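Render Hydroxyacid dehydrogenase in 3D.
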Amino acid sequence: MTTLAFLSANLDFGYLLPAFRAEFPDADLRTMADLGPLDAIDAAVCWCPPAGLMARMPRLSLIQSVGAGIDHLTADPALPDVPVCRIVDTDMASGMAAYVTWAVIHGQRHMGRYLASAAAGRWEEAPIQPPREHRVGIAGLGTLGLVCARALMALGYSVRGWSRSPRELPKGLEGFHGQAQQVEFLSGCDTLVCLLPLTEETTGILNRDLFAQLPRGAHLINVGRGAHLVEADLIPALDAGHLGAATLDAFVQEPLPAGHAFWRDPRILVTPHIATRTQPAVIARQTRLNLERIRAGRAAEVAVDLQRGY
Ligand code: NDP
């Protein structure tokens, strides 16, 4: 009998259970409400699991994140030494591309202004710039960043990307990598999209020094993690004109507290961490495939490198 435990300190996993019951018809599915004996658990399905809990599961052979990121796992200093897998999903990638494309267009084509004029019944035109003249920089050229880059290039935007290491890129995508090329990359980003994983190196990367290296008036889109952004640096950068606007989908504290200054600033567009999602059936299927591979002595397909942090 396979036993799966659904572990989260802040998320109700009820929405996942029907899909897991379909994918694992003979398994024992345990939730935080009743984990039962910890020494029976084979795999942990996680989002922000309580620290130290998995270290008490001697039979554990898989830690499965329900999202693309694993930063919520690396925060656990007692994480056991078993494969950690994340979700890589074409629907999640196309959902992210749709959100990022919308956010780029919303900024570059002044849709905020049109919404305000329409609400006031005013016919007011803003300048129209061809996409080719607008440079979009994507920080993080992984499974999501590359799909966003392709979608924006298909619309004619001038797209550049930044990764940690050099990589082969689709034709037309200008690549930069590493610290050495960061300044050059940033200097050509009229819009900067953050699609980095949250690691020691990238925590707080969206800060006032970085904003000062962007072209004046740049639009920041953060669809990575809240802690990529030094929140206290954002409004001063908008006031100083280093940034012209920000579209934020992830926050240090979620939900963003009601009194937070970001809600009240018309230059900041807040969305509630909805850039993209993975369907429960995909999470359940990837969990089953990972567990089967591990049991067959093979490497799980989307295992992450904990040393690297993503
Ligand atoms: P990947 O792991 O596939 O890609 C990460 C990319 O970031 C790689 O290109 C990597 O470089 C680059 N990178 C990592 N560290 C650095 C660094 N220090 N400097 C420069 N580049 C770096 O991630 P995904 O594309 O799958 O996901 C990206 C992030 O998107 C997730 O970690 C998550 O935070 C966020 N996300 C947000 C969602 C939302 O709804 N808002 C939903 C899903 C994900 P290299 O190619 O050299 O390895």
